[in-house]
Amino acid sequence: MARLSWTSGTFESRRARRRQAVRLLRARGLYGPRFRDVLPALALVVAAVCSVVALLAWGYRAAGIAVPLVGVVVVVCAVTLWVRRRRPGARRRLGYYTPDELLELDTEGLALAVARMLRRDGWRVRLMPAPDRPRVCARNTDGRHLDVAFRPVAEPLPDEDQPHPPARRGQPDKETLRLVVHRGSFAPRDVRWARREGKTRLLDGSALRRWGAGEPLGELLTEEV
After folding, report:
1. pLDDT band at 31 (very low <50, low <70, confident <90, very high)
2. What pTM did the predictor assign?
3. Computed over its alpha carbons, how large is the radius of gyration of the chain?
4. 3 Cβ contact partners less than 8 Å away, ≥ 6 residues apart
5. What single-letter DSSP state applies at residue 79?
6. What is the secondary structure of 130-197 as a DSSP string?
7. What is the rounded distance in angstroms from the CA atom of residue 53 to the CA atom of residue 15?
8. Strands 124-128 and 135-139, bridge-based pairing
9. Of 66, 83, 90, 142, which one is least surrounded by beta carbons within 10 A?
10. CATH number of 96-156+174-221
11. Domain boundaries in the chain?
């Protein structure tokens, strides 16, 4: 009859504790994906690489060394461009922000982010920075003008109310739209105030995060807050 040493019991208890810890981490989503979770993506990458290699080999047999050289240059340039666009700094300059990045911005940083997102959507933007009350003015190719304000609430206090931008010569005032951006949620009184104004739209935190992820501003403005 085989005898078990005390070390085997210790080893088994360690394995049991490790399995329990792994189960807890997976239940919380902190352990990372398993191999079967990444297998489809891995198979796609392998298939794509094999396809590119086969295409280059076919080009070499058909037209000589020039085709593989051009193909390698194109692939390297495409990968480099993709990596650069994925970098946080380059991504933000293009007007794409994650929810955490938007949450960490101060008012001036939020105004800069909104200016970049407007440029991403095709607007011509003029940013007027200020420590406490920055503003963004924008114009699109259709001639519509947008005046963006940043306040914790939409309805301004009596001492901070600012007049609407003056109508431009030859353009009716209805082409100027006022947009109030807020990273939180608007109160019911803010929504009522914006509806009374008529040419004022509210962009709350949920819509702002969707805008930062790439959804066009025009689609967001058609929705009610």
Report:
1. low
2. 0.58
3. 28
4. none
5. H
6. -SS--EEEEE-TTS-EEEEEE-SSSSPPTTT--PPPPPPTTS-GGGEEEEEE-SS---HHHHHHHHHH
7. 44
8. antiparallel
9. 142
10. 3.40.1340
11. 14-86, 96-156+174-221
